[in-house]
């Protein structure tokens, strides 16, 4: 029942949209495609669905080659960023439409439509038209339409982007529960690292049409293979400082130095990039082992109950994520502290050398 | 105090109100004025009440013109709306083909109305006109100056040729505004071309098509230039539509009173039909049966 992409490439008008991707997705799994806009998420989904034919490579479903098979002969459903429903049909008819086209008998249609409608809490809206619904309800209808057919492959292309914050949270939690109970392969595209973490399952990090890393979401977050992946899977962006390892110590320029210990112990001599997540930087010392850096405040950005302090250290910009609301004047001199056991280490080619051991933070 | 502040907005409306008053309401009042008086000279007029209205409403030539007009406008809508939608659907969606087809389609709209008449007179002439001569050569007798039916068909052809492009442009704009994801969704559902048209394209074009129907109805109901240039309402009365008859009455016979009463009735008919169309189009396809 697995969906397999074998060295799949897609170019449109001489431009490479998908660059040699191989990927295997198992039934009953939830898979997140994480990447910026134009990183190839939608193109990849179109190839999976059969809306487009790959320029190179093969697509296999249950071991059968389905590369050239048109979308209507495949067993897929898709939900889009825009709320796509048939405008002149009621919610009921909208949800029933894939079953009607598949010639399912009326009693069965009725049973399944009511079942998914209930699951998505739109059972009271069945006689309404899409225009009479709120954005969230329209998207619920679209999701119900995708779920009703019980397809092997379910594609969700940034389905929550156009909803407001509250609705997004609500629907995200519901979706996680709904998909947990299904046998389908679910693929969910998003640009937001935090959304990927909240949804769990597996994550495939994409960048410029290439698949950078695929694996268990927590694993990928914890052990990004490269700086590029760490950047893509970090919100706010990861902060970096150059460091030199010699004689069992790390020297961060002339600013600070620490002895090699913990996960850093085995580092060989040479130049490294040390990555620090914004949430691991502090403006006050937490323990005696912390490394301290001098920095100047550029800007303090208050977002809800958190403050993002943008600081400059030695020419590089960092972001310190602080709990609570804090005021900082521009140009204020601060000391930035980080626990050495939280450091991600990348070599000069941007490849991961070591990452912090235990993962304690998932989501607050 | 609150009340006064809220009402300030009315001052902002005064300029528009003045423009509308001078351009629409005052002339309309003049017509109302004429329609209830018998005018013998500038200082010699008699109030006659609804006499002109009674006279006009029992005028059989007006009845004929109205029937002719209704048939004409119905045919115009029945031909132009589906034809316009069809052409819009066949036009390329992007690339140079889209620009080219837009220019070609818009050409008839750029030609002055009286020139359209002249073009078609020549085009349909049985002796030298490309269309007229060709159709005669095929063995179908055609002469718009002599046969009432031929004249009628020619006016209809002119109207369709001139104004279908407007419907095409509106429908095309409506089609272009549909997000690509709708078509993808339909493909994934396995919907046929017809189902895609019926359940996505047509409902999504509803707004622009409502405007197209209203515009084409109003315009065709007020048609004047085409039949006037072609035959002046003939042969016989075959192309004497409402406005042609109105002008004959007002300018030809100088019956200002009846003509004014006629204008009022004409105006109310157009208003009534537009309202009916609008109401119907608001409801169609929404499942609202009331």
How would you describe this structure to a colleague?
The complex is a heterodimer of chains A (364) and B (290). In chain A, strand 9 (202-207) and strand 10 (210-216) form a beta hairpin. Chain A is 23% helix and 35% strand. Chain A has two domains: 3-231, Rossmann fold; 239-354, OB fold (Dihydrolipoamide Acetyltransferase, E2P), CATH 2.40.50.140. By secondary structure, chain A is α+β, with helices and mostly antiparallel strands. In chain A, the strands form four sheets. In chain A, strands 6-7-8-3-9-10 form a six-stranded mixed beta sheet, with helices on both faces. In chain A, strands 13-12-11-14-20-21 form a six-stranded antiparallel beta sheet, with no helix packed on it. In chain A, strands 15-19-16-17-18 form a five-stranded antiparallel beta sheet, with no helix packed on it. Chain B has a single domain (60-283), classed as Orthogonal Bundle (MetI-like fold). Chain B has a two-stranded antiparallel sheet with strand order 1-2. In chain B, helix 2 (9-35) packs across helix 14 (256-283). Chain B is globular, with a radius of gyration of 24 Å. The two termini of chain B are 44 Å apart. The model of chain B has no long low-confidence stretch (mean pLDDT 85).
What structural class results from the helix and strand content of chain A? Answer: alpha+beta
Q: Any idea what the shape of chain A is?
A: elongated
Strand order of the largest sheet of chain B: 1-2
- Oligomerization state of this entry? heterodimer
Largest sheet properties of chain B: 2 strands, antiparallel
User: What is the CATH topology classification name of the largest domain in chain A?
Assistant: Rossmann fold
State the separation between the terminal residues of chain A, measured CA to CA. 36 Å
The helix tally of chain A amounts to 8
Give helix and strand order of chain A, one letter per element, not per position. EEEHEEEHHHEHEHEEHHEEEEEEEEEEE
Instruction: List how many beta strands of chain A DSSP finds.
Output: 21
Q: CATH class of chain B, please?
A: Mainly Alpha
Characterize the overall form of chain B: globular
Radius of gyration of chain A (Å): 24 Å
| SS-based class of chain B | mainly alpha
Radius of gyration of chain B: 24 Å
Q: Which parts of chain A are unreliable, with pLDDT below 50 for 5 consecutive residues or more?
A: 359-364
Helix content of chain A: 10-25%
- Termini separation of chain B: 44 Å
User: According to CATH, what is the class of the largest domain in chain A?
Assistant: Alpha Beta
Mean pLDDT of chain A: 88
């Amino acid at each position: 029942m697995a969906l397999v992409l074998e060295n799949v490439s897609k170019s449109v008008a001489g431009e490479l949209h998908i660059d040699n991707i191989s990927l295997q997705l198992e039934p009953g799994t939830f898979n997140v495609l994480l990447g910026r806009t134009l990183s190839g998420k939608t193109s990849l989904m179109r190839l999976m669905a059969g809306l487009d034919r790959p320029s190179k490579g093969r697509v296999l479903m249950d071991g059968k080659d389905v590369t050239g098979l048109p979308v209507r002969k495949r067993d897929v459903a898709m939900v889009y960023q825009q709320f796509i429903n048939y405008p002149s049909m009621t919610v009921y008819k909208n949800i029933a439409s894939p079953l009607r086209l598949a010639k399912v008998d009326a009693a069965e249609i009725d049973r399944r439509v009511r079942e998914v409608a209930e699951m998505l809490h739109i059972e009271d809206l069945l006689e309404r038209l899409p225009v009479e619904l709120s954005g969230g309800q329209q998207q619920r209808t679209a999701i119900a339409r995708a779920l009703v057919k019980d397809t092997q492959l379910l594609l969700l292309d940034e389905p929550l982007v156009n909803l407001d914050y509250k609705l997004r949270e609500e629907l995200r939690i519901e979706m996680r529960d709904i998909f947990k109970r299904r046998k389908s392969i679910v693929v969910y595209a998003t640009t937001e690292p935090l959304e990927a973490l909240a949804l769990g399952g597996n994550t495939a990090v994409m960048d410029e049409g290439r698949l950078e890393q695929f694996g268990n979401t927590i694993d990928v977050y914890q052990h990004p293979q490269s700086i590029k992946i760490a950047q893509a899977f970090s919100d706010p962006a990861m902060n970096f400082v150059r460091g030199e390892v010699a004689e069992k110590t790390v020297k961060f320029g002339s600013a600070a130095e620490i002895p090699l210990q913990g996960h850093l112990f085995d580092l060989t001599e040479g130049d490294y990039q040390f990555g620090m997540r914004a949430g691991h930087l502090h403006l006050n010392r937490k323990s005696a082992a912390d490394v301290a850096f001098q920095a100047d405040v550029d800007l303090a950005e208050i977002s809800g109950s958190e403050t993002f302090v943008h600081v400059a250290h030695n020419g590089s910009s960092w972001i310190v994520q602080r709990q609570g609301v804090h005021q900082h004047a521009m140009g204020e001199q601060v000391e930035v502290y980080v626990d050495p056991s939280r450091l991600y280490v990348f070599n000069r080619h941007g490849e991961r050398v070591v990452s912090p051991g235990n993962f304690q933070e998932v989501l607050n | 105090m609150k009340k006064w502040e809220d009402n300030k907005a009315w001052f902002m409306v005064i300029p528009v109100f003045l423009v509308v008053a001078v351009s629409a309401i005052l002339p309309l009042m003049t017509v109302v004025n004429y329609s209830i008086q018998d005018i013998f000279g500038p200082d010699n007029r008699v109030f006659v009440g609804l006499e002109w209205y009674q006279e006009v409403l029992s005028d059989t030539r007006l009845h004929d013109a109205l029937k002719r007009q209704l048939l004409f406008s119905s045919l115009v809508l029945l031909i132009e709306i589906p034809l316009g939608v069809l052409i819009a659907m066949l036009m390329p969606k992007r690339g140079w083909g889209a620009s080219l087809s837009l220019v070609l389609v818009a050409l008839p709209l750029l030609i002055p109305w009286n020139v359209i008449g002249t073009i078609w007179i020549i085009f349909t002439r049985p002796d030298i006109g490309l269309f007229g001569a060709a159709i005669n050569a095929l063995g179908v007798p055609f002469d718009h100056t002599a046969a009432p039916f031929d004249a009628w068909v020619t006016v209809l052809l002119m109207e369709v040729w001139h104004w279908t492009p407007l419907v095409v442009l509106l429908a095309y704009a409506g089609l272009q505004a549909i997000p690509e994801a709708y078509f993808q969704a339909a493909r994934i559902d396995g919907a046929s071309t017809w189902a895609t048209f019926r359940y996505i394209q047509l409902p999504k074009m509803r707004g622009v098509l409502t405007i197209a129907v209203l515009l084409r109805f109003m315009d065709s109901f007020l048609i004047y230039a085409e039949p006037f240039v072609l035959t002046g309402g003939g042969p016989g009365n075959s192309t004497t539509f409402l406005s042609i008859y109105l002008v004959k009455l007002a300018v030809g016979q100088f019956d200002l009173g009846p003509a004014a009463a006629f204008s009022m009735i004409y105006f109310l008919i157009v208003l009534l039909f537009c309202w009916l169309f609008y109401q119907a189009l608001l409801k169609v396809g929404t499942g609202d049966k009331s």
